[in-house]
Amino acid sequence: xxxxxxxxxxxxxxxxxxxxxxxxxxxxxxxxxxxxxxxxxxxxxxxxxxxxxxxxxxxxxxxxxxxxxxxxxxxxxxxxxxxxxxxxxxxxxxxxxxxxxxxxxxxxxxxxxxxxxxxxxxxxxxxxxxxxxxxxxxxxxxxxxxxxxxxxxxxxxxxxxxxxxxxxxxxxxxxxxxxxxxxxxxxxxxxxxxxxxxxxxxxxxxxxxxxxxxxxx
Length: 217
What we know:
Layout (H helix, E strand, L loop, with lengths): L10 E6 L5 H13 L3 E6 L1 H10 L9 E3 L17 E7 L1 H9 L5 H11 L3 E6 L6 H12 L3 E2 L13 H14 L15 H14 L13
Parallel strand pairs: 1-2, 1-4, 2-3, 4-5, 5-6
Helix pairs in contact: 1-6, 3-5
């Protein structure tokens, strides 16, 4: 299992693979930078090709940008201190390679190192529909310590633009590696839920035991 992160991470590896979702990667890098995190970036050739279609002017900002083929890079070793890694978006090819431990490039090698050192690894797998091979790869990755976090939009946040959707997805993913984005507070429940909680609190402090909505024991 992954070791829990104590406090905000100081150094994070960001892997970007060839699945659709360039905007997610760009925004993740921006928010990590705003949080003062040192970013080590690995982008696959397929990801650059996807970016050329989706966001031709995309800027992948990071303190360190590693060569995808450089398996001798600092992040290829477990002795190099890193707090966590996120692959956003994560293609099923990259998912499968991570699940099987086939470290043929730096992105997969860094993920493998993250797992073997019991650090947090989040895979934002982007594919649909899923066949059994995809699902089995997700199960295997989960069993060896990764967190599978598909970039799913949340409509309860009442997004008003595509940027809102991207921000919510990225903020949720980054929270899994201990980075909390200002302006993206955790869900606190509906007003009705809050009212029921208040009712329960009052009932527990001397109210009638038969108060409506009181949980049974």
